[in-house]
Specification:
Chain A has helices at 10-32, 37-47, 55-62, 66-78, 102-132, 136-166; strands at 53-54, 82-85, 94-97. Chain A is mainly alpha-helical. Chain A folds into two domains: 10-99, Winged helix-like DNA-binding domain superfamily/Winged helix DNA-binding domain (Arc Repressor Mutant, subunit A, Orthogonal Bundle), CATH 1.10.10.10; 103-166. In chain A, strands 1-3-2 form a three-stranded antiparallel sheet. In chain A, helix 1 (10-32) packs across helix 2, helix 3 packs across helix 4 (66-78) and helix 5 packs antiparallel against helix 6. Chain A is elongated, with a radius of gyration of 24 Å. At the A-B interface, helix 1, helix 5 and helix 6 of A face helix 1, helix 5 and helix 6 of B. The first copy, chain A, binds a DNA duplex through helix 4.
DNA sequence: CAATCATTTCAAATAAAAATGAAACTTTAG
DNA sequence: CTAAAGTTTCATTTTTATTTGAAATGATTG
């Protein structure tokens, strides 16, 4: 249905194309960090929108259920990747993407990496204790392997702050 | 075959405990890199075994199906995280863990990270081209956002080799 | 306060990922 | 060559993650 009265501005088409590419970018990016595609979609949409968008805007633009949109916006707010923007005389909440990615990273590191490293630390300590109880003939091999795990865990812990800094925008 | 010895040696119990902790360590570790738990289990078992193990050893020790074991061993061989060890007069293949983790990392980076970064590069380039076609009033905001993506992608590309080096054991 | 609009919650549906195991295939031994 | 051992493949099942949408909850307005 091509209504001739409803003039399609070619510039809107380009903006739409850019947004589509950008959403794709973030969907992949977020999936790399183990996040559901819906979150990448929402963030991508907001990232390329100059205007704050409501939840309704999100569900309509992305063809997404209200449940997903609500959950996704909540997650993004928790990780400080978006923030709300109040419009006077409007009942709805409006959302803006926080364009600094460090929020995304630091939440990811805090929630996904740090707990792993901590449990890894406990684990290698427990293994060390256990290996001390072994007769020396068996100790050699296991101690060496446990030592390697320990060094890996230590190095990873040390690398993290550096990494966060390097990716700080 | 040492399976004939059914006497419970307390030292075997400790070795088993260490192995169990270690397997857990690798299951989490591999899951952090988006790999199935079966692969972490197999690698963990081999990492703490002084003797090379056969596929049968793996399925029995871990209570895992032959299909999973075969697939898992294949993946681990592909990423050079384990290697085969031929025993004369034995038909089975025997496997040894490669204890240097750099194999795991570099495969992960090559297969999971690099392709993403490459597609990110293509994507940002395409977005830049598109944004050049826009009238200047709209350009400002979008160009700035695209520029940020571009810098993120560039920084990530630059950080990768450093990261690999820091985690080289 | 009741009517309306907006948002959240969560049980159920759907989709995606991983594991299973039997059949097919490959290799070696006799 | 044939039989047995070892391994791989892959259709099916199981498990896990994500999405949906209707009902419950909350918030605002006249």
């Amino acid at each position: 249905m091509n209504s001739k009265n409803k003039v399609k501005d070619p510039k809107d088409k380009i903006i739409q194309e850019i947004t589509a590419e950008g959403i794709d970018f973030f969907v992949r990016f977020m999936q790399m960090m183990g996040m559901p595609r819906s979150i990448g979609e929402i963030y991508g949409l907001l990232y390329f929108s100059e205007e704050p968008l409501s939840m309704e805007n999100v569900t309509q633009s992305l063809g997404m259920s209200v449940g997903s949109a609500s959950q996704g916006l909540k997650s993004l707010r928790n990780m400080k990747a978006i923030r709300t923007s109040y419009k006077i005389g409007e009942r709805k909440d409006y959302f803006i993407a926080e364009s600094e990615f460090r929020h995304l990273f630091s939440t990811f590191i805090r929630d996904e990496i740090v707990p792993h490293l901590e449990s890894a630390k406990d684990r290698t300590e427990k293994m060390s204790e256990l290996s001390d109880k072994l007769p020396s003939e068996n100790k050699e091999f296991l101690k060496q392997r446990i030592g390697k795990l320990n060094r890996l865990q230590k190095a990873a812990t040390k690398v993290l702050p550096t990494l966060s800094t390097l990716l700080r925008f």
